[in-house]
User: Fold these one by one.
Assistant:
Number 1:
Amino acid sequence: MKRKLTENLRRLEDRIQAACARVGRDREEITLVVVTKYASLDIIRTLVDMGIADIGENRVQALTKRAAMIDEYLGRRARDLSAGAKPRPRWHMVGHLQRNKVKTLLPWVHMIHSVDSLRLAEEINTQAGKLERVIPVMIEINAGGEQSKFGIAVAAATHFVEQVTTLPHIEVTGLMTMAPLTDDESVIRATFTRARELFEEIIGERIADRRVFRWLSMGMTNDFEIAIELGATHLRVGTALFEGINLAPDHTSVEETATK
């Protein structure tokens, strides 16, 4: 499994490097968030041992359980001098977040990519205040205008960002979007271009501080190269890394599947 993961990661990195080279970007500008939605806990442990620093989950239950298990695993490793200590990964919430799950999520999450309502932002702010934390978030934008997708409409995004930046326990670090699932590259490019233009407009109008508001989370397995060309700073990739690997579900995955 580790050999296959290493091969897949090398191919993925080659594609990221090539996309960066095409537009003159530095690879260091881009954070790869490995989305482990269907991966087993053994696979996640292996990824952590390989040095993967950023892990994304779509569901709160999966993130909190897996983060706790990985934390325990790394704690054992730290006590075993022969095993060598490994840094704890940063956990990213990349899926839709319900307000009633915020309290459970915050002790474990590093960043939330999917803030899509003022009520959700206010709940994050309240719970973060109780923990004496400031939570980095991105605002989810429905840049493709799809009715089936979550996210703030482009026309409402500027005012929304202005509102959320007033909350003291939230740090608005950028925007997140998803392109429509299509083979039409022009549609994907139009979606990512719209998100990038909105990002630049928010900075240009000084609605958010560019020293903090600096990230664009966009691009998954099917379209991350286009996202890089159009300014993405965070890629949310899973499938490309797990090609050819049996993603035997652990207990967490089974529970999630049952609740869908």
Number 2:
Amino acid sequence: MKKIKLLTLLSSLFTLVVLTESCDKAEELLDPCASVTCQNDGVCVDGTCDCPDGFSGTSCEIQDLCFGITCENNGSCIEGICDCPDGYIGSSCENFDSTQVQALLANHTPIDLVSGGVPIDSLYGKMYNGGLIFYLNTTDGTGMVAATEDQSTGAGWGCSGTDISGLANATMFPVPNPETEAGALIGDGAANTTAILDGCNPNDGIAARLCRDIGAEWFLPCRGELNLMYTNLHQNGTGGFAVDFYWSSTELDVSSAWVQHFNAGDQFNVNKDFNVLVRAARAF
């Protein structure tokens, strides 16, 4: 009798387990999300976790550490932290570190830095190619540097009374320094210097010769180039220029050439025999 009761009890328990499992399976069929657990506020939809922004995975268990992080100035997010390009610092690469520019120029060209987001103004006055950068052409990457010191504290331009072959005469008075005449344009200084030295007595052409004497690639800057030295170097407190007149290689006529005063930036034409300061330039 006891065996019958025990068998009856076991049979009832087995039936209960079977019915429970059947109910669970039925519930899963009716609700595919019944056994799905979504983490990080994910929501189950038709048996699959719909994850909130910034999370992924079967259960929304994988977090995108870079979600919502914006890295400025071409920086890129790596595992939640902005990896900043050369010259930029800050949690979002938002700040330019001007103290890095000189070091960067040891391994990069000026145009490389500007193309990478470095402000062009931060390059002016930095040492490159043997001089202080005062001009950069952002189209082709060429530019110019000024010598780090004056080549003379007072020298004549030379060639007074000589009609120099191949040297254009710039006659327009610059107000406020529009460089639209041959001989005064950016890039004319080197050719002007060569023409002066070729067309003058070897003992003449004093200002141009002082510049060429420090190296074959150095020249007396033309009027437009000299103005960039004033604007991009002297006005920014770099270059060690005197508050005085500096010769350009731009000629007015056989007796006069153009100078610039490194105070208000005015340009004048003066007699070639006057003693004026000289600062050389070179291109890169």
